[in-house]
Amino acid sequence: MAREGGRPLSRTRVAAITAAAALAAGTVGIAVATAGTPAKASAAAQPQSPAHYQGPRLTMIPAQHDITVYGYPNRPNSKTVQVFMDPGIWLASLGSSFQLNVGRANYRSPVTLTQVINTPGGTRVTRALPASMLDHWNGVEGMIRLTVRYAGHIVTSHSLTFCPNSYDPERAIPDSPASSPYPLQGCAPFDPFPLGEVWGIAKGWAVDPSESFFGRPISLVPNRTYQVTESITPRYTNWFGVTPANASATVNVTVSLPPGFPPPPPPPSPTPTTTVSATATASSSPSALPTPTVTVSASLSASPAGVPASTFYRLPTRARTAARPAGPLPALPAVRTMKNPPADVLPDLVPLPAWGMNIAHTGSKKVVGHDYLDFAATVAVGGNSPLDVEAFRSNASPVMKAYQYFYKNGNVVGRAPAGTMGFDKAKGHNHWHFEQFAKYSLLSANKKVVVRSQKVGFCIAPTDAVNLLLHNAVWNPTFIGFGGQCGSTTALWVREMMPVGWGDTYEQFLAGQAFDITNLKNGTYYVAITANPEHVLKETTYRNDISLRKVIISGAKGHRHFVVPAYDGIDPEHR
After folding, report:
1. Of 115, 168, 480, 488, which has the fewest Cβ atoms less than 10 A away?
2. In which domain, by residue range, is 170 found?
3. CA 470/CA 451 separation, integer angstroms
4. The whole model's pTM is what?
């Protein structure tokens, strides 16, 4: 999704992530546990036969048995075409939800995989699964196999990593819940320092396992019909008690060349034209609406049998009373100001280590340029409450007074002054910024500031799932990204909010926001990310508000290089 300055956030680094991270202070880092209702102790990690398995009934369901897809030649006179294959086969979870929790206790701990099972008796059981099932944080490795056959022979076969968190889950049966509680943004994390993820398929819902495979084309021969099978592989049919009848589904797929440019659309068929006239006499009662008399004249190209085309129809109407409350609306309780709110209503802001570093050079052979160290910075929210900063206009002022709101059990219990918000008219912004959220600095080897980023304004919003295993974490925020939440120039009120378990990432690549290292000596430096630098926001603790990431700079001006050592074994970077 786009962030400040209009550049999209890249996900190309996600596939290389091999571990996740706990957040530094323990309020965002937790021992891996089931979110929500307490669960019984984990069952022994072993495969289970369908007869003994108490979990959901996983079933492969084809949407259609026969489909036609278009293939596109990848070169002139090619005998094959490239097909982006999605046969429309769904994996449904029947009987109960299919849920996997993925997490780690801290940076140095191994990633664990836990199945959460809601048994028919109403209890919740956690079951440890082998971590070798994980394709890092991208999903369950090799759980699905897609096989294409022609005339009984295998043409191609692909092992798929399965991500239960589909971007487009669908209801599989009529009595399924109206909505799915599970995250919709996929499995692969955006930043390299996640702590906990929840993957799942709701009871009676289904997801498309080919969703992640659709971008990889397959070479096939046009005008042939292939048999495409998606199946749950034997390792997972054993672990999840899947019967052979439910483990696979096959669709006949006919490959066709795309048609030529479509002909112009036919002229629209004659449609009724209407003229409406209305007369109204106002009621003597001010609380009633006028009573209209409506006459409609319809001109039909083909009239219904026995009805002349010029027939006038009088629509029945009746007077209606304007909706209004029966009495005065009750006043909402006043939100009290809290100077020292208790910890159980506070969030905890924790900056992750800087990541996504790069060195950019401006200038040319004729113009002396600058070297900039680009980086990404993520500030996550843990603790006991979302971060909710709201600002209000007063006396047409160009600056809004901001307040932090505190929650308990989902209800607002108080607020406190939290600085100001100002409107940023710069290109790529054009919204209100909260100016006390974070700051970025480049430190020398002895931890002294050598360069400060000029990034001072923030539109706070969730962009990254960091730890969805926290007790108060929200799996599906109302929105992801800052679009529409930071107000226009005419706004009276702005609300910037980030739920527990999520982080807000900014990529610093603009001049002034990235670090100008043109005149810095080669050597060791630290990128410092400071959350809540002025302590304007109330938190459970301020002790974890700074993260440091080591970076070693080398090379001549205009040709600088860098090495970022792994942070506790996570995310080494270099160029």
Report:
1. 168
2. 31-256
3. 35
4. 0.79
